[in-house]
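[SOLVED] Predicted holo structure with zinc ion

Edit: marking solved, answer below. Original request kept for reference. I posted the sequence and ligand SMILES and asked for the 3D complex as structure tokens.
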Amino acid sequence: MKWINHQIVTGFIVYAASDNALFVASSIVGAVLPDKVEGSPPQDSRAYWKWRKNHRTWSHYPPLYIALILAAHFATEYFQNPHVELILSLVTYALFGALLHIIEDAICGKVPVFTPHRKHGIKLFKVGSWQEYFFAALIIGGCLLFRFKDLFLSEFNL
Ligand SMILES: [Zn+2]
């Protein structure tokens, strides 16, 4: 999935779930984190293949992000301070955005699930294809429907 679609899809999912602009912003930053930590692919061919070998391994390993989310949760409990809580919430939403990135990658390629070097996934569409944009639009529509469901229900007297 292209970065712009990672950011839009993740932003809308977090918006539907949290209705909080700060958390949405934070998740959008996290939405490109797994690719960002890998750096851009090097031009030199030997360096490229070395980079390619580690592409989508540790950076896209879900248990790592889940462990960090749990650590942030326990730190929040430990400190019991509203400022620390806000910062850790932003960190948690950024990590959640990274997790969504991995799920989004798993539907258009392969990502590690159980071990960092064995990848799994289903290829629903090709990156950058019209199907990707259609999928992104479907998710956005679903999120808006969820967020404004009461409005829709009262509009149609349901
Ligand atoms: Zn990725």
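OP edit: The chain has one domain: 3-155. Thanks to everyone who chimed in.
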